[in-house]
Amino acid sequence: MGPGSTTLGVELGSTRIKAVVIGRDHGVLATGGHDWENAFVDRLWTYPLQDAWAGLRAACAGLDLGAVDALGVSAMMHGYLAFDADGELLTPFRTWRNTNTGPASEALSERLGQNIPHRWSVAHLYQALLDHEEHVGRVAFVTTLAGYVHWQLTGEKVIGVGDASGMFPIDPTTRGYDRAMLAQFDELAAGLGLTTPLVDLLPTVRLAGEAAGVLTEEGAARLDPTGRLRAGVPLCPPEGDAGTGMVATASVAPRTGNVSAGTSIFAMVVLERELSRPHRELDLVTTPAGDPVAMVHCNNGASELQAWAQLFGQFAEALGTTASSEKVFATLFGAALDGDPDGGGLLAYNYLSGEPITELEEGRPLVVRTPGSPLELGTFMRTQLYSAFATLKIGMDVLLEDEGVGLDAMFAHGGLFKTKGVAQRFLAGALRVPVSVGDVAGEGGAWGIAVLAAFLRDREGDQTLADYLDTRVFQGVELATVEPDPSDTAGFDAFMERYVAGLAVQRAAVDALR
């Protein structure tokens, strides 16, 4: 390892594929990116895998890859990628966004005694069995998007424990798949014709800091056709965006948590004890080191805010004014600070897709107001921001109030928090906990997986991931922390009363607008 050695992290997010090169001090040296979008095909959300590879190559194209001596792959968690014995894809990639797996989720949750969310890989597999899909009889390997890319780069069918926990429940003692639950699943699946043990279909679990294979000649050429990236480079275990988000925010120790806001929005809180019982609103997953985490995952995040910002930007252009997207967002978010604390009687729903927490299989974005509700910019934008956090609050209330889970601080990251002091303030008010932001998480999961690759390379003995982050990565990092404002908290609570009551309108819109 020379003084100029670097690590490379790539992440396939919901709307953008990113690549980050970091130095020995974990500082960002260079970044690359490529936009991509999911498609709704045959009533299922998917991405063509050829687009993933084209995007990865585009993201890496302008980077200096000659000094890379460790790398890692991250991608959106969950979903379903199924392959036959020859490595051929059996059905288009089914993403975390799909909510067609309700019957499987309900049946598995009841049998296993743990909440099995709609988007988990095992729910997709079991739903395919329930639907008697032809391809299920030929399944030889099931993995996530990160696990797939890692497999193609290394030839190794492995997965990081954090990403694995979005495929099948993890035993907190062994930090591998729960054996008792595997046996229960096999009993259920046998009655539907699947006789191969599930464990034989899943990738092998690896913990942060453990070896997970090396880059092959074919893998290096697939990622970087120019030949700058050397074969033989070690890879850390592939992780989901939730796990790399925890790393990017140093939220891997008990009583710490983070919120990631993008196309989806989710919160991760590291637990210091078991929950009293299963909750439909809470997923039990793990950190990349295998420690238990409660996750509140909402399918709908900032996409509707993005759509409104684009509309206002188009209006500015129609007036003959040129404004960057950053300026538009900063102006709209700034106006929200002057809006009515309770949203002024306005309601907004950001549901572009189904939302399991509120038991909706599909979504219809809505803005609703009574005749007496004021329609002015500040209150409108505050309502839109509240809407982005509303479903998250429903789940977090279960965790913090019903379960009494301890949480000292929440770290927020994602594009929603780039305009300083707005979304951060409203989130603190909604959750009633201090919320911190910092530039260190600016590159998100791509930086987080690059740090995990550095941990693989630099780990000393049995050093823990939490210690590595505390002593090598985040020491001396300054964060901006906002305490909850009582008027925001009271206003958000009033908004939530209307929001929950108005879900009947959202359900009616789904039924009426096809």
Automatic annotation (TrEMBL):
InterPro entries the UniProt entry points to: ATPase_NBD, FGGY_C, FGGY_Carb_Kinase, FGGY_N
Domain Carbohydrate kinase FGGY N-terminal positions: 8-223
Domain (Carbohydrate kinase FGGY C-terminal) ranges: 258-455
CDD domains assigned: ASKHA_NBD_FGGY_BaXK-like (cd07809)
Protein family membership: Belongs to the FGGY kinase family.
Name of the protein in question: FGGY-family carbohydrate kinase
Organism of provenance: Microlunatus spumicola
Transmembrane region(s): none
Keywords, alphabetical: Carbohydrate metabolism, Kinase, Transferase, Xylose metabolism
Keyword Kinase: yes
Gene Ontology MF terms: kinase activity
Domain of life: Bacteria
